[in-house]
Input
Amino acid sequence: MSLLVEDGTGLPSADAYASVAAVTAYHAAFGNDSWADFDSTQQEILIRRATRDLDALYGAGYASTRLTPTQSLMFPRASFCTDDGVKITGIPAALVSAVSELALIEGTIDPTGTSDTSGNDKVSIIRIGDIWTHTEKFSQTSANGAALRKVSFLLRSLLIGGAASLFVPISRG
Output
């Protein structure tokens, strides 16, 4: 089954934020030769998993709201601006980069499962009304901690609290 890549309009059946071609170009640009070890069917599966897991791990912390109530994925969002004033619409490049990185990780580990016996990576996003908190903890000895940190850093500008911090300022509305 071919990927149905979100085009920025809020498709009700999209299952990916990036195409195989986009992820392949990303990895080629950064010299990640191991992406080519997977055939195109495996690459599609890894991109689907990466999209699903990004939404599961970070979706509650994405800034703004979904563009449409019927879209299948957490993006696109109603327009918002990053901390440095850049207006975000459609599928942001940072999200495609994060999917690309996580798709490669998905080829070797389950980023949402237990990392090893020394500790787990934790992303905690809590919302109570208009008050949000976002905390990330990574075990230094975790097998996937460093890889997931890269994904988190790529997504920072799309999360509530933005690029300024991994911690979200609390405000009362």
About this structure: Helices lie at 20-29, 40-58, 93-106, 145-155.
